[in-house]
Amino acid sequence: MTFSLDFALAAPEVILAAAALILLVWGAFQPRAGAIFTLAAIGALVAAGVAAATGPLGRGFAGGLIADQASVFAKVAIYAASAICIPLGQRWFERRGVHNFEFPVLILLAALGMGMMVSAGDLISLYVGVELHSLALYVLAAMHRDNARASEAGLKYFVLGALSSGLLLYGASLIYGFAGSTVFSDIAVAVQSGAGTGVLFGLVFLLCGLGFKVSAAPFHMWTPDVYEGAPTPVVAFFASAPKLAAMVLFARALAEGFPGAIAQWQQVLVALALMSVAVGAFAGLAQRNLKRLWAYSSIANVGYALLGLASGTGEGVQAMLMFMILYMIDVTGFFACLAALSRQGRDMETIDDMAGLFRERPGIALAMSAFALSALGLPPFSGFWAKYYVFKAAINGGLGLAAVIGLVGSVVAAFYYLRLLKVMWFDDTAGATDKPPVEAKAIAISLALFSFPLVMGALVVLDPLAKTAAAALGLG
């Protein structure tokens, strides 16, 4: 393997790293470059996506970086979600008198880390990717420095993130010590006839660290507080691309590193999945703040994705990928709706704030209704198809009882989605809302149209792409 081929395999990461450094220097001299700065960051993400989609496939850097159909699928989705969040966040900050040129740079650095995560071929690149994207997210959470809640969110995220990083690193060190290698393919050879006790301990710690990154219960404690305190566009980013990256990393680490220990890690994933569904469904019932509510919704939805992955089959990996793509679109659109809504300059973040919204802002109310119905899993919205893939894979993988429990959790969670619809459509209005910003409204309505009806056509394209991506991981 030559350095030139290694470099070609890492082209998306090279583009993002170079763009982040250039924009950082540019911003130091022209901190109010505005739209040009935003367009440059979006252009870098588009270029990285094109490089990922058209570049060569293979393994580089002694197996530390993998470019395959799974990484291509994930990177294109991650870069697209990141590109959408840049104008959404940049304009949100500017309207509040905050001119942070670092915002697009941090998005690029987070996207760089996520790209490394989905291409990780060993434990070292896994850890570097996780930490690179996490450090950027810690700063993004506290980006609104004059807001005490944002500062608190950033601090909580950092402290608990450090704990999860310790778990991740300890697990990786145990796996290396007992398997004798950090490369996933070599670890797979070492555990092909079953994982020993030492490797299993390391794997459990590794899964706990990754469980924090996807907000899986019982490692979800940071999620409601950080979602509530962080700026709304930042939460839209938190809830979308990083979750997909972490789930693909989950799948790659397990499928390529521990295919001989499916019976062991399947039990852990099923436990994480069912706990996440239960916590997300029941704890969400008591929430009045929509950002906290959607935090618990995201915990439950991660549980569904883990349930698909827990089936231990290629169909399960495909279901997880389909679920995460469709969920990512819905959650980004929902937070775009929240970013578009304010009353007398105050953000509208509670269920009570949405009273009578349909009479005030029918377009945004319809979009928010579509996202709520999709999260509920009502056919024919995209959320129904996402859950259909997951439950079908779980049943076919011998996890019928777990699928039934997941379905019960989905029914329980329906209460808080329907409560939001009732408040928006039938309650008396709480007062006139401010004119919504163009970019947030456009993003919200566009993504709502994807939720239905465009999803019906998109499934024809996404299904074979997800199947090909899942096959690249080699599970089942």
Task: Provide an overview of this structure.
The protein has 476 residues and is mainly alpha-helical. The protein has helices at 3-9, 11-29, 35-54, 69-95, 102-118, 123-141, 148-179, 184-190, 197-213, 223-229, 232-238, 241-257, 262-283, 290-310, 314-340, 357-360, 362-376, 382-396, 400-426, 438-473, and strands spanning 58-60, 65-67, 342-343, 346-347. The strands form two sheets. A two-stranded antiparallel ribbon has the order 1-2.
Poorly predicted spans: none
Strand content: under 5%
> Roughly how many Å is the radius of gyration?
21 Å
Count of discrete alpha- or pi-helical segments spanning 4 or more residues? 20
Mean pLDDT: 89
Order of helices and strands: HHHEEHHHHHHHHHHHHEEHHHHH
Q: Strand order within the widest sheet?
A: 1-2
Structural topology:
Blueprint: H1 3-9, H2 11-29, H3 35-54, E1 58-60, E2 65-67, H4 69-95, H5 102-118, H6 123-141, H7 148-179, H8 184-190, H9 197-213, H10 223-229, H11 232-238, H12 241-257, H13 262-283, H14 290-310, H15 314-340, E3 342-343, E4 346-347, H16 357-360, H17 362-376, H18 382-396, H19 400-426, H20 438-473
Antiparallel strand pairs: 1-2, 3-4
Helix pairs in contact: 2-3, 2-5, 3-4, 3-5, 4-5, 4-11, 4-12, 4-15, 4-20, 5-6, 5-12, 6-7, 7-9, 7-10, 9-13, 10-14, 11-15, 12-15, 13-14, 13-19, 14-15, 14-18, 14-19, 15-17, 15-18, 15-20, 17-19, 17-20, 18-19
Please outline what is shown here.
This protein is an all-alpha fold. It is built from 20 helices and 4 strands.
